[in-house]
Specification:
The complex is a heterotrimer of chains A (306), B (304) and C (525).
Chain A lengths: L1 H28 L4 H4 L6 H11 L5 H13 L13 H36 L4 H15 L2 H15 L12 H31 L1 H8 L5 H29 L2 H6 L5 H10 L3 H29 L8
Helix pairs in contact in A: 1-13, 5-6, 5-8, 5-10, 6-8, 7-8, 8-10, 10-13, 12-13
Chain B lengths: L13 H5 L17 H16 L41 H37 L1 H15 L3 H12 L3 H28 L2 H8 L4 H38 L10 H7 L9 H28 L7
Helix pairs in contact in B: 2-3, 2-10, 3-4, 3-6, 3-8, 4-6, 5-6, 6-8, 8-9, 8-10, 9-10
Chain C lengths: L1 H17 L10 E6 L9 H4 L4 H7 L5 E2 L5 E2 L5 E6 L5 E6 L13 H11 L9 H7 E8 L2 E6 L6 H4 L13 H14 L7 E7 L3 E6 L13 E6 L3 H10 L4 E3 L5 H6 L4 E14 L9 H4 L1 H9 L3 H7 L5 E3 L10 H4 L13 H10 L7 E6 L8 H14 L3 E6 L2 H9 L7 E7 L3 H11 L13 H11 L4 H17 L4 E12 L17 H5 L3
Parallel strand pairs in C: 1-10, 1-11, 14-15
Antiparallel strand pairs in C: 2-3, 4-5, 5-7, 6-7, 8-9, 9-10, 11-17, 12-16, 12-17, 13-17
Helix pairs in contact in C: 11-14, 18-19
Classes of the chains: A mainly alpha (306), B mainly alpha (304), C alpha+beta (525).
């Protein structure tokens, strides 16, 4: 087990290293950040000054080495736009993304469970169909459209819920729902299949024949079986939710990682772009590793590498 | 039942190993009912897109500022000149919806085909050869999977400028990794089966085994995945348009049409709503079709 | 089954109960919701003019203005300023009752320190460059006297250091900054303005708190002022409806919707001029078709400015006649824009001019399309203009990018012949001159859009003039020539709408670049 973790970690580090080169090049390909930061009237001298001040006049190799060297200890440089350490910006924003993703995951589970169970129990009927459609709807609507409609009507006109994050639990609802609905379809499908398996199993058939149905046992059994794939699924999607919530963050003015990435890219802010991509990759790698470990621990029949 | 070697949490067989009291998957009665509604919906939009140049529609890119934001014909200020109304530059909504069908569906299909071709290739090779090759390819796959599509598309849009090609590339370049993972998982399962060992004994080389034996058996999975993902790509394009990295104007594409109309959600609802409904129907149809395909072709593919 | 539904219902109930009513906006707090706060910086040399509207609350300027941009001894630290006979020494007399938020008094040393810091190497403000060239030394003969000595005779020092332009005139505390350093100061700024700094949450908001008994405003009416970042317009409007925001910027297209609901609309009239220009050749000259004056005129005649103002900007725009025509300066310099100077919409004449110039079938033209802050209609606008040019036979190709990408091609001259635009913030004559010196002056190379030797000559003359009458005449001639030679394609003046809560109906945002005079809103004296 330990060997497995170590091997995976080292492989992830290699992947991160490759990614660091890729993002270093990509970030610099986006353009010159100074044109966004300096006023229109800036002269060549101003540009030279700013370049020297920000360390952009060193050779690419020097810049890369400096970048990697400092990234290893968590120093991602200074944001060209905000003139503040990038690690500080990330430290401020990442928790917001985590919290929203967690809430969204909660919403997904809260929606997927009843829908999945309902669909399984009423398999083949219109209700089954209906539950499937409700789940799939979450993947069929453009996120920003749903978000804007919710803000306009639920928050603005009906005023049932807050429009932007203000610290209250209620302000998590609209963005959390928008983010979470996307994930419901996949989770619901898993649950439905697991439930169907159990309901069709020999054990339950026998119980039926005997005329004894212990609903609680059936339910508990089904949910226990469903738990692991759902946890896996949730884990994978959690990291996706943290890192790609940019649309939801924009509409609900949520100061998270996605919005930071957007500002970084449009502002050609290399340190920010580099940092966000690396942090994102690290989060995904860690979560995937965690999920794989959990999986391997729970089911020793699985060999995860040849 | 032969013991299975499983490919990890995202392989199609993961659920099967854990579920069921008897330790095996119960065969379900096949649903022979054809999915008429999803197929019908898709057919309508595909036809509309294909026949767009031949229908006598107004130019979808012709501006007419004087008739901007006209409502559809059934509303008070509507007229048959623009049955579905006009957008903020006075362009006919019906024409844009129909032409947009071409663009959005093309974007979805091309992206998915590219991603699936490359991803399947990687998955097949990794699953077949195993060992270091598998390890290297899988790490590459993981690294790719961890790069958010939206960020890459934004970076491309900002560097090279938004375009149809950039949208397709940005999505395909990351989407293939999903196919690779799933296909690899399937291949790992297949590799344990007898007929592969027999083929090997018979002297078949890697290429032959992959193309003759492995690929056909993973084809079902591919088909299901492809169908399910076309809708996803169309949705991603819409989100990219919202951020300014989608298919750029004046080309009509449903995603950018919705994004353009987002400030008029109440005052000129049709500008966003109509393409939104189109996306909804098409994506729903593809999803339902994919579900049906999965249930019909191989009920074991529950994890997809 | 039933159990699951029960749990679900309970969950919903809990959420419903947790829905706290939106915190009622007591009239003691002002919340302003904007689409963005530029770089969200808090330090004058770093911020430049984009953040004036909150920086002017944190800091005092050396020279204040009234809300129409007129320099005023009542609005700044300087109660009086005089020039020497040779216009090379400017003496500022400072008020004695200004204090920094940490209690220290504002002295001449602070002013000298601030100016030098604001135009130093670290600075990215709008006019640091020209001030560096202009200022020789700064003397502090007394704690309430500052003398700025310039290398050349000049009229414009007070304006450059005033609230009318950028942030170079903001006064910062010397002792405090020297003790904590630049980085810490930028994190926790200390100024002498009517509001002091409370907190800055990156990407979310900047919060300020009233500084009691300020010489500018008395004790401010609002205990706190918060600037919130809300990128999406629908969300800003929802917040206005909920009363969680008191002031917000809205797009021109939604003005009617909000007016109908009774929200007071505040317009900054002619807030910006949307002027288009041609990207010049790498050697600074006009690229082929535009070289001919008739082509440029035709391109101007092709556009129906009234329709653009109506259809794209909802009527909240005025046709513009002068390229780079910063109209807030016209009154000062005595320029009257006559009806004859307005461009008519004349497709026939445009076609004829093109044919006369040798382009009866038009020519290919790249039209860049991008969004800009305060100009969300950018892409639709560019598409519309391209449409007009198409109608006279030109073959436009729309190139949607973001502004940074266009700027690179413009400034590096990688796209000669293409057109671009900007919504140039309107400003007084000093600012207008500074802009012309960048965008119409060939030696300014990268930003030049006019390529006209006569204009170059006139701009050079203004630089060394100290007679205001002569300066005004030169400025008038520059603008008139820009128009008569069709050295650009002016489209419209934009009115910028700001919606407020009903309680703030009397707010006047003023006509000073990037400033909204929130301090006046909060003033109790």
């Amino acid at each position: 087990m330990l060997r497995f973790v170590v091997v995976r970690l080292s492989q992830s580090l290699v992947a991160l290293a490759i990614l660091s080169v890729v993002v270093f090049i990509l970030a610099r390909a986006t353009g010159d950040p100074l044109s966004m930061v300096l006023p229109m009237s800036a002269t060549e001298e101003d540009y030279a000054n700013a370049r020297a001040y920000l360390g952009l006049d060193r050779s690419y190799l020097e810049q890369y080495v400096s970048f990697v060297g400092r990234a290893a200890i968590g120093d991602f440089g200074t944001s060209i736009r905000a003139r503040r350490p990038v690690s500080e910006l990330i430290r401020e924003r990442l928790p917001n993304s985590f919290k929203l993703a967690a809430f969204a995951m909660g919403v997904s589970v809260a929606m997927a469970f009843p829908l999945g169970i309902l669909a399984a129990v009423k398999k083949g009927t219109a209700i089954d169909r209906g539950a499937q459609i409700v789940s799939i709807l979450g993947q069929s609507l453009p996120t920003f459209w749903l978000a804007i409609v919710l803000v306009e009507f639920v928050a603005g006109r009906l005023q049932w819920l807050p429009a932007v994050g203000d610290g209250t639990l209620a302000s998590y609802v609209l963005p959390g729902f928008t983010l979470g609905w996307f994930v419901v379809a996949g989770m619901m499908r898993l649950l439905r299949s697991s439930m169907l398996e159990v309901l069709d199993s020999e054990y339950v058939k026998l119980a039926r024949v005997k005329g004894v149905i212990e609903p609680r046992v059936v339910w508990l059994h089904a949910l226990k079986n469903a738990l692991i794939p759902v946890v896996t699924f949730a884990g994978i999607y959690f990291s996706i939710l943290v890192t790609t919530a940019i649309v939801v963050e924009t509409v609900f003015a949520w100061p998270g990682l996605g919005r930071l990435a957007y500002e970084g890219i449009t502002g050609r802010d290399f340190p920010v772009i580099q940092a966000v991509v690396l942090v994102t990759a690290a989060i995904v790698a860690v979560v995937n590793l965690g999920v794989d470990c959990l999986y391997a621990v729970i089911d020793p029949r699985i060999r995860v590498a040849r | 039942m032969a013991t299975r070697v499983l490919g990890g949490p995202d392989s199609p067989d993961a659920g099967a190993a854990l579920g069921g009291v008897g330790g095996h998957v119960v065969a379900r009665p096949r649903r022979m009912k054809w999915p008429y509604v999803p197929l019908g919906i898709i057919a309508v939009f595909v036809l509309a897109g294909a026949l767009a140049p031949f229908l006598s529609l107004p130019d979808p890119q012709a501006q007419s500022l004087r008739t901007k934001l006209r409502p559809p014909v059934w509303e008070e200020r509507g007229s048959w000149a623009n049955p579905l109304g006009t957008d903020r530059l006075g362009r006919d909504m019906l024409a844009r919806m129909v032409w947009g069908s071409r663009v959005s569906l093309a974007a979805g299909v091309v992206t998915v085909l590219l991603a699936s071709a490359f991803g399947a290739a990687v998955g097949l090779v990794a699953g077949y050869y195993g060992g270091r090759v598998d390890g290297a390819l899988m790490r590459m796959t993981d690294a790719t999977l961890s790069f958010p599509i939206i960020l890459l598309a934004l970076i491309l849009a900002v560097t090279v400028g938004p375009s149809f090609t950039n949208v397709v590339l940005a999505i395909a370049v990351i989407l293939w990794a999903r196919y690779a993972r799933v296909i690899r998982g399937q291949v790992l399962t297949l590799m344990e089966l007898d007929f592969i060992a027999q083929a090997r004994i018979a002297g078949a080389g890697g290429w032959r085994i992959i193309t003759r034996h492995l690929l056909p058996n993973t084809f079902n999975t591919l088909v299901v995945l492809v169908t399910l993902q076309i809708g996803y790509v169309i949705i991603v394009e819409a989100s990219l348009s919202f951020l300014g990295a989608g298919i750029p104007p004046p080309t009509p594409a449903w995603g950018s049409m919705i994004a353009e109309g987002r400030d008029f959600v109440t005052s000129a609802w049709w500008v966003s709503f109509l393409p939104g409904i189109a996306i909804l129907l098409v994506v729903l149809a593809f999803n339902l079709l994919g579900d049906w395909l999965r249930d019909t072709l191989d009920p074991k593919l529950r994890q997809l | 089954m039933k159990r699951a539904i029960q749990v679900f219902a309970l969950l919903l109930l809990v959420l419903g109960v947790a829905v706290t009513p939106s915190v009622a906006q007591g009239k003691t707090d002002l919340v302003i919701g904007f689409a963005g706060l530029a770089q969200e910086t808090l330090d004058p040399p770093v911020a430049g003019h984009f953040n004036k509207y909150y920086l002017a609350l944190l800091y005092d300027y050396l020279v204040g203005t009234t809300n129409d941009g007129t320099l005023s001894p009542k609005g700044g630290i300087a109660t009086k300023w005089e020039n020497s006979a040779d216009y090379k020494r400017w003496t500022f007399t400072l008020r004695r009752d200004a204090r920094f938020h940490n209690g220290d008094p504002v002295t001449a040393e602070d002013v000298k320190f601030s100016i030098e810091r604001n135009i130093g190497k670290r600075s990215t403000t709008g006019y640091a460059g020209p001030l560096r060239t202009l200022i020789a030394t700064i003397e502090t003969p007394a704690p309430d006297r500052v003398v700025i000595v310039t290398k050349e005779p000049t009229l414009i020092i007070p304006t450059y250091l005033s609230r009318a332009l950028s942030s170079e005139g903001m006064v910062t505390p010397k002792k405090y900054i020297e003790s904590v350093g630049d980085e810490a100061f930028a994190r926790k700024p200390v100024g002498s303005g009517p509001y002091k700094f409370v907190e800055h949450v990156s990407g979310s908001h900047i919060k300020l708190e009233a500084f009691a008994n300020h010489w500018r405003t008395g004790t401010p009416k609002y205990k706190t002022i918060t600037f919130r970042i809300v990128p999406e317009e629908t969300t800003r409007i929802a917040l206005l409806r909920r009363g969680e925001v008191d002031v917000t910027d809205i797009s021109r297209e939604r003005v009617k919707e909000l007016e109908r609901e009774g929200y007071p609309m505040h317009f900054r009239k002619e807030d910006a001029v949307v002027s288009m220009w041609t990207v010049l050749d790498p050697n600074g000259g006009w690229p082929a078709p535009m070289k001919d004056k008739r082509v440029r005129e035709a391109m101007n005649l092709a556009i129906d400015r009234t329709e653009v103002a109506q259809a794209i900007f909802g009527g909240h725009a005025l046709p513009a006649a002068i390229p780079l025509g910063l109209s807030w300066s016209f009154k000062e310099i005595g320029l009257r824009v006559t009806p004859e100077m307005a461009y008519p919409h004349d497709v026939a004449r445009a076609k004829k001019l093109l044919a006369d110039a040798g382009h009866p079938n038009g020519f290919p033209l790249d039209v860049y399309a991008f969004l800009l802050p305060g100009f969300p209609e950018g892409k639709a606008f560019a598409e519309a203009i391209a449409g007009y040019w198409e109608k006279v036979g030109i073959k436009p190709k729309l190139i949607p990018v973001d502004y940074a990408a266009f700027r690179k091609n413009w400034v590096d001259r990688k796209a000669p012949g293409a057109t671009g635009y900007f919504n140039i913030a309107n400003r007084n004559w000093v600012g207008a001159y500074a802009l012309l010196e960048k965008m119409a002056y060939t030696p300014s190379k990268p930003n030049d859009t006019a390529a006209d030797p006569e204009i170059d000559g006139m701009i050079k003359q203004v630089m060394s003039q100290t007679d205001q009458a002569k300066i005004n005449a030169l400025m008038r001639n520059i603008f008139t020539r820009l128009r008569s030679e069709h050295l650009g394609y002016p489209i419209v003046y934009l009115h910028s709408p700001y919606a407020s809560s009903k309680a703030l109906a009397s707010w006047n945002p003023g006509t000073v670049m990037y400033d909204f005079f929130f301090d006046e809103l909060a003033a109790t004296k």
